[in-house]
Amino acid sequence: MKSWKGAALLAAALAMPAMAADQGVTDTEILLGEVEPLTGPPGLLGIAHNLGVRLAIAEVNAEGGVGGRTLKLVAEDDGYVTSRTIQSLRKLIGVDKVFALTAVSGSGQAVASIPVLKQSGIPTMIPIGPLPPLYEPPMENVFVVGQSYTEGMRQLALFLADKHPGAKWGVITQDDDYGAALREGIEQAKGEAEIEVAFETRYARGQKDFSSEMLRVKDAGVEVLVAGGIISENIAMVKEAEKLGITPAIATFWPGRVPEVLKAIGPASDGIYAVDYVAPLQSDAGQAFLELARKHLSEDEVARVNRYTMTGYTSTRLLIAAMQSCAEDLTWACTNKALAEGPAIETGVMAPAAFAGGRFTNSPVTIMQADYETLSYAPVD
Amino acid sequence: MNYLIELLVSGLAVGAVYGLIAMSFAIIFKATGLLNFAQGEMGMITAYVAFSIASATDGNPWLTAAGAIVFSVLFALAVERIVIRPMVDEPILARIMTTIGLAVIFRSGTMLVWDALPHDMGLAAGSALVDLGGVRVRGAQIGVVVTLAVAVAAMLAFFRYSRFGIAMRAVASDDATARLMGVKTARVQQAAWGAAAVMSGIAGALFAIAWELSPSLYALGLKSFPATILGGLDSVVGSAFGGVVIGIVENLVGGYLSPGLKEVAGFVIIIAILMVRPYGLFGEKRIERL
Amino acid sequence: MRSGFYKQTLAEHLALTDSWTQRAWIVLALAGLATAPFVLDTYLLTLVTLMMITAVGGIGLNILTGWTGLISLGQTGFMVLGAYGYAIPVESWGWDPLAGFLLAGLVPAAASVLVGIPSLRLTGLYLAITTLASAFIVVHLVLEFPGLTNGASGIFVNRPTVLGWTVFTDQDLFALVAIFLVLTILGALNLRRSRIGRAWFAIRDKDDAARVMGVDLRTYKLYAFVASSFVVGISGALYGIFLSFVTVDGFPFLLSIEALAMLIVGGMGSIAGAVLGAVFLVGLPEVVSMVFSAFGDSARALLSTGAHEVKGVLYGLVIIGFLRLQPEGLMGLWRDAQRVWTLWPLRY
What we know:
By secondary structure, chain B is mainly alpha-helical.
């Protein structure tokens, strides 16, 4: 930590022409920072995301960096605890003096960090937890990559309503912002299609035992179940359903769209629906992405690549592209402007991503189904 | 009607898990006067060890069971000897905080040694579905109920008829006097920890099979707490009963009232019991009040 | 250095301080607090602010556990009540922040009466269990009434304007928290040397004897609960302001355990101990991080370190270490050092 501070000070003192640049930029290096859960259960997504960022950075460094400067990354672990997220942000911005942020942990943490981000003005990418408060109203320096849960839910609901007309629905959602977003999506879908919700309930985060909920699902004759859990909760719900012998069509969302979930559920996970805005690993685009990963990451790390790697990669590429167009005048003002108005970036794993003047990529989603045999997902037609 | 039966069966299964862990709390309290806040974590570690053994032996249930039980006993004895026994004369707060410190270490240690992802235990017999007259349960859930019944029977017999059991009751009652009477209190405490470890280890492992194995398994300890209070901190059999009651009540509340209340039901029961009968339904009446 | 305890009059016994050395230390500490905002960088400043907020909470818990001997695991619940007790009136209803702080103390105090009354006749373990249960129930209640508390989404808290002074920068916040800390310490010291404080010590040391001496256990235990949760509530409100955000996620159950650990490490029953414990507790993760990064950048970049888990293990080891080897905590170490100094070269 001290060495960064010293180097930055020294470089700032020496590099007079570069004085137009903001913090984190020296003659030879640009420092990026991020906060995410690197350990503990949420580490599954934090580590994968971090790999995506490092992949993008390695790719660009191999091509000469940004304006001849190499990119470096400092990652802080917040263990998904909000107070630590904010402390880590303060450290990254004030002590490490990074030039830009490539992630601010999950959605709840990012929302709580809004005052700090707004006050500092540092260019910030948010690829892990896109929630509306982060881009509505839009902030000068905060850029959200992805799609809202509400929109994803709406599209998946419309698809399932079309596929199972007249079915009874069950909706189990979490008792927080994520759950509220899903519920909002169902409401929107109800306005466009016939959806009869026979059973609806909420659960508190961390609940492990869903036996009574699933019993009520069975009792209500539910044929389409919206499983609004993340990882553990969905595993528990589907296994309970298997135990009770019911087989509704199950709808899940991207936070839990990782192969580990399928593995933990077992054969009952075959045919689960999911909606996401990045390509599944088994697809051509996904395989190409894995090839790229193998070039720059170790074997252990490639094994941990999942959808969060793709979102991290895409958002960092967006940031890098903006920085590259500002290579002469590497300031926050220029970068924020370039991010907002820059052209779409094609990464293969996501639809071409751009902010088009706003602060949200509004990426289109695909609906997929899980295949237990290969522990993967494939798009439905 | 079927709905009610299913709820009751579910409640019984999870209640058996609570009951076993509650019995662990009770037996340690009975023998040493200490509440082992790390019990849930110790059960979790046993479950993870069972997972490792199962992975290594390709799902052999006998080896896994034997290995897990042996490990849990050795682990508990080690903990008792190294950390708990030296603190036997310290005030109660220090001893409780020691177990809490252990709990923190075990929690983080589990994630260090294994990983933080949820896993399937890999024991086909446990996950297999069994049809009991219209209600389907997993093999492991039957296993847990059977284990509870066996444990209760064993404890009843032990405390009433065996010399060692009577010795344990003596130590719980007044350990200085017991020592004067020739009881080896150290042995008694070791036995208590060992028995507790086996019960909570089996409970943790079976829960992991029937539900899932993840680093948040330790929360079972906290949830089994109300069961011990309900039954009586020093009543081992009472705790088992308390566990089943809490499991069933939780499921009934979740099934008929609101799912949100389900999680808190246990804690509300604690407060209610402590106000009315602090020594629990089956505990010994002590003059704890002033 | 003191070699003994020589008080001859009641006035001397009750005085806040009697030695010039102690007064010098106090002046130094105050001077340090006053100059810190100008000398420390933002990161260290916010770290010290966090230490001070934790210290306020620790002093509160000390009143209950250190002075009256009532083990409480309900710290989290009272902090949550204090944080929401400030956030809801000030942010949702537009009240003045001073009134918000008052409510941040009164709401948990009222709740503690509710928790205290059934627990009054219970000792040690049973009280710990009741307070544990109450912490969970409080959190559940907060989530159960989203109309009032905004449920799991939480409430944004702006930095307050107190008596015309707008607390905006980190330096301002540091000053505000420092003022609260000083007021809390003064209040606690006053309670300690008053009749109520002595009654609490009597209850802790030998409650039946206290009863014989005319101390009504129920009333004084309730006083302890109320005073403790009032202070803890205020620390909760300060924490909410510090995070600019009040949610139940910001107050995990771990806080209760950390609070007790803080008192044990610092020294149970001593205000200075509570402050030292807070400094230690907040500082330990930072020190561990620094040690880790000193081992090279590879420790950082390599994701397989599990640094957070190692911190957890170290944390537990530190608690157990202190409990085994120095149950009187850092203040105990200080007293031992004092004794060795005064008695040297003699052993006793």
